[in-house]
Design a protein that fits this description.
heterodimer, A: about 110 residues, mainly beta, six-stranded mixed beta sheet, globular, B: about 120 residues, seven-stranded mixed beta sheet, four-stranded antiparallel beta sheet, 11 strands, about 50% strand
């Protein structure tokens, strides 16, 4: 079956860059996503990448995909306290189809 | 504005009772999903539907059922609530024809406690 894994916790200083990593096992994953969840809230889509891309940049966010190693990362530049949240990677085989989520990484930003 | 709403936001129930969680969307999305969120597991898929009268089992479907009688609603029923079903439940909907990723919307969640 599909398996998506993330480290549980990351702590960074305000203004530094954060890098959140994710590994997945399903080689047929077509779309890979990063979601953000703030305390007590639902999930907010941050960005996504197609499996035929290596990199995608969107303002402070950079997504890197190593398809050979099935490794996905999310870099947040100039991390702010408002970035403190849980970040989930997820994959699906087609647009709008069911998602398989990672375990989530809690990002703590310290002043 | 289109939206997806879950009710109730919080519920406490007793072991063995039947419980139904509501999910209603006005996006006119064909696809609807139920996930549960537990620490250390992320979100796991319970059931999903690609359209009216269509339902499918997800990764953790035991003890749960859904029905899809119209486009807007996918209620999730716990047949006989167990303490292991204490969790936060999220409903989501999507349009397979939409722009990848951005056609997917989540509800605000229902926190269920089984005592």
């Amino acid at each position: 079956g599909e398996d998506v894994e993330q480290s549980l916790f990351l702590s960074v200083r305000e203004g530094d860059s954060s890098v959140i990593n994710c590994t997945y096992t399903d080689s047929s994953s077509t779309y890979l996503y990063w979601y953000k969840q703030e305390p007590g809230a639902g999930l907010q889509l941050l960005t996504y990448i197609f499996s035929n891309m290596d990199m995608k940049q969107d303002q402070r966010l950079t997504v890197l995909l190593n398809k050979k190693d099935k490794h996905l990362s999310l870099r947040i530049a100039d991390t702010q306290t408002g970035d403190s949240a849980i970040y989930f990677c997820a994959e699906s085989q087609s647009s709008g189809d069911k998602l398989t989520f990672g375990t989530g990484t809690r990002l703590a930003v310290r002043p | 504005d289109a939206e997806i709403t879950q009710s109730p936001r919080h519920k406490i129930t007793e072991t063995g009772r039947q419980v139904t969680l509501a999910c209603h969307q006005t996006w006119n999305h064909n696809n609807m999903f139920w996930y549960r969120q537990d620490l250390g597991h992320g979100l796991r898929l319970i059931h999903y539907s690609y359209g009216v009268q269509d339902t499918n089992k997800g990764e953790v479907s035991d003890g749960y059922s859904v029905s899809r009688s119209n486009t807007e609603d996918l209620p999730l029923t716990l047949e006989s609530a167990a303490s292991s079903q204490t969790s936060v439940y999220f409903c989501a909907s999507s349009n397979a024809k939409g722009l990848a990723g951005y056609g997917y919307t989540f509800g605000s969640g229902t926190r269920l406690t089984v005592v």
